Amino acid sequence: MNDSQQETTFEDLCQRIDALLVYAERMQQFLRDNRPASMPSVIFEGVESMALQLPKIKKKAGLLAAEQNRLHALAGIGQVVNSSLELDVVLEMVMDTIIGLLGAERGFLMLKNDAGSLTMQVARNWERETLEASEFEISHTIIQRVEAEGRAVLTTNAQEDPRFTGQQSVMAYNLRSILAVPMNVKNEMIGVIYADNRIRSGLFTQKERDILEAFANQAAVAIENARLFESVRRTLAEVTELKNLMDQVFASITSGVLTADVQERILLCNRAAERIMGIAAQEMIGMNLGDLFAPMNLCLEDPLIQVLKEDEMVVGLETSSDLPERGRVDLRMSFSPLKDFQETTRGVAIVVEDLTEKKRLESQRQLFERMVSPRVIAQLDPNRLRLGGQKAEITTLFADIRGFTQFSESVDAQELVAVLNQYLAAAAEAVLCEEGTVDKFLGDGVMAWFNAPIAQADHTLRALRAALGIREGISRLHAKMPCEQWLGFGIGIHVGEAVLGLVGTEQRLDYTAIGDSVNTAKRIQEYASLGQILVSQDVYERVRGSVEARPLEAVLLKGKRDPLRVYEITGLC
After folding, report:
1. Are 292 and 277 spatial neighbours (Cβ–Cβ below 8 Å)?
2. Would you identify the family this protein belongs to, as annotated (predicted)?
3. Does 235 fall in a domain?
């Protein structure tokens, strides 16, 4: 039955009651004026009673009709509230509906957040305008009671209600008619609806409370639906963004990536796969894996069986072959099952790494590591390195074990080598800590230099620190070995120009330094006694003020015509 039909029925009923009332009044008047003596008094009393009851019946009918109209309107409002999935729209609809239903001055809707606390979502007035935060003058006591008890709270005049005597918000904001109800979804409270009037008392009754409770539960479902829709939409946006990101990542991966179905037909490939295989994507997609890898003479039968039939990964399958578009290539491939969300294997994913350039560089690196310390290699710029002889100023350090020959006569060969390696390792470590280059081990000695192949502004000071480091390393070594194995170094250092370059044969190459300055450092070392660090005049002049040193008498070094002044380094300033 629609609204117009309800109104017609009620109007028709009212007309019939009015007609009866007129008839009863006329009958009553007639009986008063012309009451037959034979008429029983019960008839007269009945007419009198009907005349009195008809207005009451009319009033009750009006109340019932109004209640029916209100319930019908509530059902219609539920449809309106559920007509949108936009959360903000739903919240405003709910609030405007509440104010319209109750005739409230203001309405507030609070929802629980992720932390379980109630937060204000929307506040509206009777003119359907959004209230500012400064206008949130509500009774937090009533809201807290609804939240705690999960039941509606109704007061016709909060100013006189003993339950709220002394509550500051009630008194301060002059609150009167207040109705607050919980919003429940599946027996779980998700929020509170609060309506009030600060002017009129007795605005809300038990009927308004029942109506608002019924509506609140409808509104709660609508809000949850809107929340779910918003969550789904947000998730969809995140998934879309993630997919776009994955597409970008997939396209930018430097390794080639191919996917194929269980029939081994290629479904997808990235740009790196195009570059590595030398074939455009549109040509690869739809191609059989066997045909793609046929030029490599690579048999994929076993790895594909292992992946597609046995559901296992194949990692690190390497091949070296000629490709029509690229020539000789070195590739490493890994195969893994391609699964759906039910963990069912739907194909194979292949990652192809191009090792061609890496292997070429690795070969060059292995060659160079035979000549230069790894720590220096890590700093080298291949674009600036020039092979062949090249003049450079370097600081050369020679360190030789004193007393090693005598010691070697008292121990067996195995112990001799073990002890020698410990001393040489200590010396090499001290040089490498200062980023020097260990040229070679000369029996029981070490040759090293600084300032090449990487330029070092303080190369001479680095050499001295390395020498002192050798001495400290020997002390630490002595602390953990028997005294009969105690040996020490004599160290010589000189600075000057030398020629650095590759020398040797194809089978054995050395990156070494040659020149008079290198020979001078060697001769100074031969003059040094156990534990001494001797340097030339040129070295001392460069580090004066940074080291502690004492001058020694000039010495005539082997192969030199004139005596050379030397200094003994005792420490750093």
Report:
1. yes
2. Belongs to the adenylyl cyclase class-3 family.
3. no
Express each pLDDT in 231-240 by its tens digit.
877 877 777 7
Q: Which domain holds residue 203?
A: 84-230
Q: Residues 131, 67: one domain? A: no
Per the structure block, which two tokens stand in for 154? 């109704």
Mind listing the pLDDT tens digit for each residue in 250-268?
666 778 888 889 898 988 8
User: In the listed set 78, 113, 138, which residue is the last one of a domain according to the structure?
Assistant: 78
Q: Which residues are within 8 A (CB) of 354 and not within 5 positions of it... i.e. 6 or more apart? A: 255, 256, 275, 276, 329, 330, 331
Considering the domain architecture, whether residues 337 and 476 belong to the same structural domain is answered as no
Same domain, 93 and 220: yes
Position 224 in a domain:
yes
Report yes or no on 379 lying in a domain: no
Residue 320: which pLDDT band, with cuts at 50, 70 and 90? confident
**Exposure string for 206-233, b = 16+ CB within 10 A, e = fewer:** eebbebbbebbbbbbbbbbbbbeeeeee
Inter-CA distances, 534 with 137, 430, 562, 571, Å: 90, 17, 18, 12
